[in-house]
Amino acid sequence: MYKKLAIPAYYHLISTILSSALAVSVFENEISTFPPPPKPYAFGYAAGRYPGHIDRTHSEVSDGSGVIQGSYSYVDPKFQIHKVDYIADENGFHPILNRNIPTLPRDTPAVAAAKEKHLLQYSIIADAHQRLPQRAFAPVESNAVQYAKNKHFELFEKIAQEHAKIAAEREALKRSNEEKYDR
């Protein structure tokens, strides 16, 4: 039923399992796990506070051995672009401020006029949507809605009359019972 393994085959099986599947090594009665294989990665993004207006970027690359190279940039409140290149390794984080940012190109007269026209139209639309309407408009009722309302009011009146009748009958019954017991 069970097959007995010879001792050398048994040790070979155990050593194969321990060395390959578990990645464990034994040094002077100390068990340690081998480090995982390198996991290189790369990413980058560009973002802004408004659609179509990028005001910050970041990109980074790692070779998996612990050395990371990257850069990020942003626009400060004075609309100056700042860019920082960096390297991070076992000795720490090493930023390099790039002060030689090229100036942005100036708009041509046609582009400047188009921007001005766009901003003017945008502000007109924004102002129009910020104002409160002078009059409130009530919805117009259709014939079907008017018919349903009239039917509802008729039924409401009928039920109110029935309730008034029931209340009067109860009051009369209450008085008659009081008169019986008062005698």
Automatic annotation (TrEMBL):
InterPro entries: Cuticle_Struct_Prot (IPR050468), Insect_cuticle (IPR000618). GO terms for molecular function: structural constituent of chitin-based larval cuticle. It holds the Pfam family Chitin_bind_4. PROSITE patterns: CHIT_BIND_RR_2. This is Adult-specific rigid cuticular protein 15.5-like. GO terms for cellular component: chitin-based extracellular matrix. The keyword Chloroplast does not apply. The keyword RNA-binding does not apply. Keywords: Cuticle.
